What we know:
By secondary structure, this protein is mainly β.
Amino acid sequence: DNTIGYNTSGLYVGSVYPGAEVYGNALANNGPIGGIFVGEMSGGDIYENTVTANTRFGSYGLGTRGGGMQVNDMVAGTIRNNTFTANKGSAVYIENLGTYKNRTTGYVRTGPLFTGNILQDNVASTVDSLMVPGGMYIEHIYDGAVRGNTFTRNTTDGQTDSAREGGGLYVYDLYGEVSGNTFEENVSRFRGGGASIQRIYEKGVCSGNTFTGNAVDSASLYGQGGGLFIGTLEGTCDANDITQNDVTTLASNGKGGGVHISTLAATGSFSGNKITGNTAENNGGGCHVVTRIGSAPYPWKVSLENSISENDLTDPMEAGSWIDLFTPWTEDR
């Protein structure tokens, strides 16, 4: 129950061990090294803290990542029911969520858990082009899970396209789970207004999330995935509700108003999603799938396995542009 404010760094914890607790603290206006720094979590519980208006920028450790909280290695334990508001340099940065050797242990997650947190009105720093999301940045999710959190009105503001992904959440490698989260009114400047995931591996899961009113507002020629952007889908992306998201760009080249998938692998599952009322500019108002890999035929078609309707295009690329769904299979359209 401490109040920690106006320091270069709010709270530094080298290690959080099993049975340890960090809870009930109010951290505000700390910087430029942020609100909470944790070197490693091998267990324990970080909960019910309020982390507000902290900043991280410049040449401090890992650059501008984790204005609210930075955790280098979260091997075990729980971060739950915290509120991160109006932090700069991304609200939360976790380098490793789980353990690499456990990355293919199965669909039941037994590793660390980030759950029940609220991330709202956070913004990526403009100082360092390494910054990616406004809300949360995770390099690798191994046997861990991001579950049941709320991401609202977070924004990116980077100096390069690679610094403008995932208004609410950015994940580089997903072996674990992103499920049951709510993404509302987040904004990215390039890809993934609500969330951007570069690669979902075969055991990885992104399911049961809600993406509503997110946007890609691109300052470049390209923009993709107003609600959700996925680079490569080898695992599972099922039963998400993707509604009223949009993409705009400088050159009317926005694709995938609801969701954009660059590569869909033969092992990838994309089914049971509701994709409604989204808007893109020139193709795939609801869903845009660019290509597929693998020689095995797919046992399903995207249009039959998902509910995709009432989406729109503001500037169709050509007469053959597809309002609801674009995939490499003409029979899907």
